[in-house]
Amino acid sequence: MNQMKPLLGQMLQKIAPRIGATVVMEPEWDIAGQIIFANGRKRYFRYSSLDLNGLGASDIAKDKDYANFFLARMGYPTIEGKVFFSPDFGRAIGRPKQNIDAAFRYAMTLGMPVVVKPNSGSQGTGVAFVQTKREFYVAMRRVFKTDRVALIQRPVAGKDYRVVVLDDKIISAYERIALSVVGDGRATVDRLLARKQKEFRTAGRDTSIRTDDPRITIKLQRQGLSRDSVIETGRRVFLLDNANLSTGGDAVDVTKTIHPEFKKIAVRITKDMGLRLCGVDLMVNGDITQKPADYRVIEINSAPGLDHYAKSGAEQEQIVEDLYLEVLKSMAVAR
């Protein structure tokens, strides 16, 4: 498959004929498509967003603060946090005092370090783990370049998991491990990063590592390292705090070993949030293969991008293909 194009369109074009459907892609950008089913029904998709989930539920899922409110109200363990606004947006909505300075005061009540992230962002873009006042203001200003609302949260420890749900079924579950490199006693961090990017391409994974990401420099400095540091053989150095696959993280598949109670939780969250297809992100203090004891819902995603997961192995690509085949069958009938 062409690595530069979004996976969804390519995958649907491949599997649609199995159920007598046709996929028509808009030719200039190749990111939006129409599915024409054998019964004449027409459905649509764009990037990784399918014509499957309801509009209202999808919009709530895209807003981390709103989603957290409803999840917490229904009794799910969420992450403590609060939103603050860019200057122009704060004035426009009558909340000028809920600004960057108020955000820092709130962060101090939580106690440093804190997590700063765009309220409507995805794929780990703009997420920062900050420990100082300077880092906080830099991270907030970076968020406000792309989003009018920033979310400040208390950090939670544990393993980061993505569980993909379609109706009553767990399609996939995997642990997400943050971008890291392993030393060989000779190469610098920058050379190890370049080597990792080359390995991604060789493996058919189209993840593009932002080697100039300032968060990498900060993460290295906290470990007493720099981009020119030579890492000793066998030492693993983590370069980002967020574990998204889109930023170079790795996936460890746990689809076959996830505990049944965690399966039930992910399915229930999906239904309670009014969704049919959902990526449920969990931070588990322990292991998702064990009975739930201490976990938090990080966020939910109504359009879970599976490009990077599918490129992590042949088995994973087959899982994604099977998912989209089930999705197609489901979209063919009114619901």
Commentary on this structure:
The chain is an alpha+beta fold and 335 residues long. Among the domains are: 63 residues, no CATH class; 76 residues, 2-Layer Sandwich (Dna Ligase, domain 1), CATH 3.30.1490.20. Strands 13-10-9-14-15 form a 5-stranded antiparallel β-sheet. Strands 1-2-3-4 form a 4-stranded antiparallel β-sheet, covered by helices on one side. A hairpin with a 2-residue loop joins β3 and β4.
Report the uncertain regions.
none
* Beta-strand percent range: 15-25%
CATH fold group of one domain: Dna Ligase, domain 1
Number of strands: 15
CATH architecture of one domain: 2-Layer Sandwich
- Calculate the mean pLDDT score and round it: 91
* Outline type: globular
SSE topology string: HEEEEHHEHHEEHEEEEHHEEHEEHH
Class per helix and strand makeup: alpha+beta
- The multimeric state of the shown protein is single chain
> What is the highest CATH level, the class of one domain?
Alpha Beta
What distance lies between the first and last C-alpha atoms, to the nearest angstrom?
A: 32 Å
Order of strands across the widest beta sheet?
13-10-9-14-15
Describe the largest sheet.
5 strands, antiparallel
Helix content: 25-40%
Compute the CA-based radius of gyration.
21 Å
Name the CATH superfamily assignment of one domain.
ATP-grasp fold, A domain
Helical region count? Answer: 11
